[in-house]
């Protein structure tokens, strides 16, 4: 079978468990209580624990890998999370080939039984010909310079070195059959993004933060045994909507491997 034509679609069902949320928290380091503490989560505007955005990124990529006849490693990825994804209910994964040239572009969606979209975005596969629309970089945007005890320019930083057992655990968690991870000892992009999830959910803004939108450029793969340094920086506050924008960067040996932006909802984050 060849690569599906533009307009081709694929659907499959998926159901999440609290055990999956707990496993991803362990693998990524993001034990934000909105994902793993039912007592905390029930008091938030969600009313219960919700899936990590980066776990959903991984689930969508795994479904893409199971559908396509050859690997399609993300070079660019954007995702919005307009509604929470809970443990228990059944959801539908929907994929569509939007473009094949100059780079493979796939629309990706997770939909609840009532039609509510809980994750919406698209992925551009690794290709020298991929040129998405320009995105906002590191620069700060208009708005107040203080919010909930935070200040613009505040940063958080973490170091992570992945081992084979962690990658294998992640592959099993989301049923990702991409052979490149084993053949070339690559760290899955969603697990690389999990280092950002850790910083947002544990450090800055911290527990209670809810990831609403992310845009990533994966500038080169991360390999097992490499020390990945991840950094986030506060670049915009919108207090009237409880929103915080962050700039994101990941590097290995001083070379950029990841850059992007994150939008986080902070109503359930305690002031500092």
Name the features:
272 residues; alpha+beta; Thiol Ester Dehydrase, Chain A; two-stranded antiparallel sheet; 7 helices; 35% strand
Report what the structure shows.
The model has no long low-confidence stretch (mean pLDDT 91). The termini are far apart. This protein is an alpha+beta fold and 272 residues long. The protein has helices at residues 18-28, 33-36, 38-42, 53-67, 164-174, 180-183, 189-203; strands at 9-15, 74-80, 90-99, 105-112, 117-125, 146-147, 150-151, 155-161, 210-218, 227-238, 243-252, 255-265. The protein contains seven helices and twelve strands. The protein has a single domain, classed as Hotdog Thioesterase (Thiol Ester Dehydrase, Chain A, Roll), CATH 3.10.129.
Q: What is the secondary structure topology, with strand pairs?
A:
Elements: E1 9-15, H1 18-28, H2 33-36, H3 38-42, H4 53-67, E2 74-80, E3 90-99, E4 105-112, E5 117-125, E6 146-147, E7 150-151, E8 155-161, H5 164-174, H6 180-183, H7 189-203, E9 210-218, E10 227-238, E11 243-252, E12 255-265
Antiparallel strand pairs: 1-3, 2-5, 2-9, 3-4, 4-5, 6-7, 8-10, 9-12, 10-11, 11-12
Helix pairs in contact: 1-5, 4-7
Overall 3D form:
globular
CATH superfamily: Hotdog Thioesterase
N→C terminal distance: 55 Å
Q: What level of helicity do the residues show?
A: 10-25%
What does the main sheet amount to? Answer: 10 strands, antiparallel
The CATH topology annotation reads as Thiol Ester Dehydrase, Chain A
Provide the gyration radius in Å.
Answer: 18 Å
CATH class categorisation: Alpha Beta
Query: Which sequence of SSEs, written as H and E, runs from N to C?
Result: EHHHHEEEEEEEHHHEEEE
Structural class: alpha+beta
Total tally of structural domains: 1
Give the DSSP E fraction (strand runs of 2 or more residues). Answer: 25-35%
Q: Strand order, main sheet: write it out.
A: 1-3-4-5-2-9-12-11-10-8
How many beta strands in the DSSP annotation?
12
Instruction: Please identify, by name, the CATH architecture.
Output: Roll
How confident overall, as mean pLDDT?
91
User: Which regions have little confidence, pLDDT < 50, spanning 5+ residues?
Assistant: none
Task: Compute the number of helices.
Answer: 7
